[in-house]
Amino acid sequence: MKAGIIVFPGINRERDMAIALERSSGHVPRMIWHTETDLSGLDLVVIPGGFSYGDYLRCGAMAAQSPIMGAVRLHVARGGYLLGACNGFQIVVEAGLLPGALLRNASLRFLAMDCFLRVERTDTAFTNQYQRGQVARAVLAHGEGNYFADDATLDRLDAEGLVAFRYVTPAGEVTSEACLNGSARNIAGIYSPDRRILGLMPHLENLVDPLMGGIDGKPLFDAFAA
Amino acid sequence: MQRNVNQALASEFGLSPSEYASILAILNRTPSLTELGVFSVMWSEHCSYKSSRVWLRQLPTRAPWVLHGPGENAGAVDIGEGLAAVFKMESHNHPSFIEPYQGAATGVGGILRDVFTMGARPIANLNALRFGRPDNPITKRLLDGVVRGIGGYGNCVGVPTVGGEINFHPAYDGNPLVNAMTVGIAPSDRIFLSSAAGVGNPVVYVGSKTGRDGIHGATMASAEFTADSGEKRPTVQVGDPFTEKLLIEACLELMKTDAIVAIQDMGAAGLTSSSIEMAGKGSVGLELDLDNVPQRETGMTAYEMMLSESQERMLMILRPDRQELARKIFEKWELDFAVIGHLTDTGRIVVRQHGQVEADIPLGPLNDQAPLYHRPTAETTKQEPLNPARIEDRVGLGAALQRLVACPDLCSRAWVWDQYDATVRGQTVKRPGAADAAVVKIDGHKLALALTTDCTPRYCAADPEEGGRQAVAEAWRNLTAVGARPLALTDNLNFGNPEKPEVMGQFAAVIRGMASACEALNFPVVSGNVSLYNETEGRSILPTPAIGGLGVLDDAATAVGIALPPWLDIVLIGVTKGWLGQSLWLREIAGREEGAPPPVDLAAERAAGDFVRSQIANGMVRACHDVSDGGLLVAVAEMAMASGTGARLSAHPRDIPGHAFWFGEDQGRYVLAVPDCGIVLRAAEAVNVSAVRIGTSGGRDLTLPDGATISVEALRDAHARFFRTWMG
Asked: What confidence score (pLDDT) does residue B227 get?
């Protein structure tokens, strides 16, 4: 699969994402500056983490209006895969490609720590290399990751199996203590209805090498290695 | 601002009568307001080091691996494989007291610029923070603001904050210390310097626009605080980490070309110091036309523009034939790019605005005749060593340990770290708290850097020379404890008012102590910063020479942390005499702050460190932690808390009282966890290093030699309690 990473001004985890993709696939992903308009030939487009436009407006709001987002919509319409991580998730939500909003963390503080994610299903293009019920460690690094949506939307996400990851204890239990940023129903990541778009707040790309503390993030990237 | 320039105004600008007289002599006329402003900032303590320069010369600055020592924007050392580590630490103490968030944030921004100015990509930030008593109501607000500011800036620019230290002491009540350190990586043959060259070459301004913020910040940083210092808030700048991120990327992109002749960031004293230092180093002159400076506000005077400390700005001398190429790069990054002058052969800085000459100063005298003071010094009175046998333990080991791990100076800093992104860039091998030094791998190489900040101000106050020596030795020890080869250090020398002989005496003695350790450990100073006048209402801070140490590991995978694995022997390296003077046990448990601080035996330090490093390199060591604040038992407890694994400790030697053995702060010691202590003990004996088995790891409890048992979980709770309850 061919992967590309979109870089907006202020994005800062593009290299982390490239390392993770390359580690799994052996291929160097294409780095795409935000003024480009052509995403053809790519199977997976990634919008990585960072502070696009400084997050000086609502997180992701400026980047979501960028012309390249037209190309991202085309890519999705063509059946391409889209991964939005952290700021990328915020951008994808602001662009209306996923429902809900990412509010300030309940503690009103930036949180940078490990968290645990339960992989909610393993039959998607993103998670098919995870084991059923697996709990994966991931790195949290955000100030605005508190997922919010109205009850009807949350019910629909649950009913249609569109919750990709939930914050859990290391043993896999969904508790309020495990939900460090206060997200509704412990939601850490969600899919689009066709499960071709994944948005998630924590950084699985930062745990792909035992040297950096673990490889629980690697299956996400192994899934696109073929 | 229409003011007559005279002696009175000069004093308001912080210039002494004799300094003002020199200005009149240099110019042979009364300076314009702009010229007076230029002289006052260039001759401020902050920019001229006029009180400290004579002493700083004593510090060793050379080693075969040092590429650039003090004098450049940052120091640079060769780390092998064609790479250089570029690093420096700098203070933002005064701004952080006035406005903690922005003061700390712009401190991070400023030190980042010092590093990427030299062509290095920043890969790690650290900090060294000191605050007043936790029960002083302003301390909580200051600490919260500083932590948010450091995180707010560092997290946004995408440079991981990987380490640091925090102390509390009443001496910092009105004057917290915020020292920020940045480390970057550059190809060792592509380091950019600040010496201007090439008459006619354009002087180019890039980055943020200039506003009225931070005018006279350098002068503020060179004065004591009074109760109304809050009124100085307008002299604090506001940080824009997003623009900084763009500036990093744009500068590094331009640095891949051959366009840049010289480059310098606009830090303290902004356009004034950057232009004058670049021209001065290159022995050229320059003309600036302020009408071309990108401006955020209208109606700014030449004085305001020359002294503005607006952030995220750089000044460059470019090759004229590469000007358009450079402009395109900055346009891509949506940053201002303006040619604001050119180099001349006049040896003068000439500043024009609206066609008028606003300043015309000969650079030679401005630089060469900068004041240099041999200020009087008074030695700190030495204190007698305490005899441990005469200090009674009324508490017992277990209770003292639980109190110590919970005290503000030793408790868990997780509340702070958890707000700093330590993992961005994906190269962080040892995060905060995982090891004695942070370990950050170099992308695409096996190499890793070990990084630490250290200082024990209470030692420095009791005996500045011993304290200066200890600060350097502890940094060296922390690098060694992860298995790294210490290479060099940066320092941030925070002291009180240099016009007081006792403060200048502290400064001189600290330098002496530091120099002796640098020499003995082959650990030179390659960059640094001096922050004086850290006083409020006449009360001085503790002398605080914060040391930022840098070491290298040839293979990141060999780094060891402090987390204690189960079923290993625990071995103590180094000599223990039971030194309780100035120890935390003495302060926190016995309620006394007295005695001589523990001496550092540099030969023993070197021998013990070299031995530990060799054992780590041989793969003999599963965990390693140096013994510092709180002594041996605290060190073992920290190792246990890091992993959750307990330990059973053996009896202490009969000739030392138990509390002195377990809580004394004798220097040059390490705790190792090893699978086979026999091999390690024999190897230590062979090189004449003291080593003794003090216990075994395993289980979930810490069993003390007096039989008391404390669960590691209980220790962790005590350790976490302070910040949790204080900050809520």
From this structure: 53
Q: Is B46 a residue of the active site?
A: yes
Positions of E strands within B159-253: 161-168, 177-187, 202-207
CA distance B595 to B390: 13
Q: Which residues of B touch A113 (CB under 8 A)?
A: 418
With an 8 Å Cβ cutoff, is A5 touching chain B? no
Q: How far apart are CA B287 and CA B275, in angstroms?
A: 10
Task: Give the separation between CA A64 and CA A57, rounded to whole angstroms.
Answer: 11
Taking only the tens place, the pLDDT of each residue in B144-180 is 999 999 999 999 999 999 999 999 999 999 999 999 9
Q: Which residue has the tokens 């922050």?
A: B531
* Catalytic residue from among A14, A75, A86, A144: A86
Q: How far is Cα B486 from Cα B394, in angstroms, rounded to an integer?
A: 41
User: DSSP string spanning B637-660?
Assistant: HHHHHHHS--EEEPPPPTTS-HHH
CB atoms closer than 10 angstroms to residue B686? 9
> Quick check: A10 contacting B, CB < 8 Å?
yes
Compute the nearest-CA separation of A175 from chain B (Å): 20
Residues (pLDDT < 70) of chain B are 1-2, 217-235
User: CA-based Rg of chain B, rounded to a whole angstrom?
Assistant: 26
Whether residue A175 has pLDDT greater than 90: yes
Please name the residues between 71 and 90 in chain A that touch chain B, using a CB distance below 8 Å.
Answer: none
B556 contacts in A (CB within 8 Å)? 211
Is pLDDT at A65 greater than 80 in this prediction? yes
Strands B66-68, B75-80: pairing is antiparallel
Q: How far, in Å, CA of B228 to CA of B46, rounded?
A: 21
Q: Which residues contact B328 (CB under 8 A, 6 or more apart)?
A: none
pLDDT of residue B232: 57
B chain contacts of residue A218, beta-carbon cutoff 8 Å: none
Nearest chain A residue to B556, by CA: A211
List A47's β-bridge partners, or say none: A84
Q: What is the mean pLDDT of residues A64-83?
A: 97
Query: A interface mutation test: which of B101, B161, B242 has the most A CBs within 10 A?
Result: B242
Rounded Cα distance between B173 and A167, Å, is: 41
φ and ψ of A210, to 5 deg? -55, -30
CA distance B545 to chain A (A): 29
Write out the two tokens for B552. 């290298």
Q: Do B557 and A211 touch (CB under 8 A)?
A: yes
Minimal C-alpha gap between B32 and chain A (Å)? 40
User: What is the phi/psi pair of residue B293, to 5°?
Assistant: -75, 125
A149: Cβ–Cβ under 8 A, 6 or more apart, which residues?
Answer: A99, A100, A101, A157, A184
The pTM score is 0.96
Question: What are the residues facing B70 on neighbouring strands?
Answer: B72
Cross-strand pairs, B451: B438, B550
Partners of B441 on chain A (C-beta within 8 Å) are 211-212
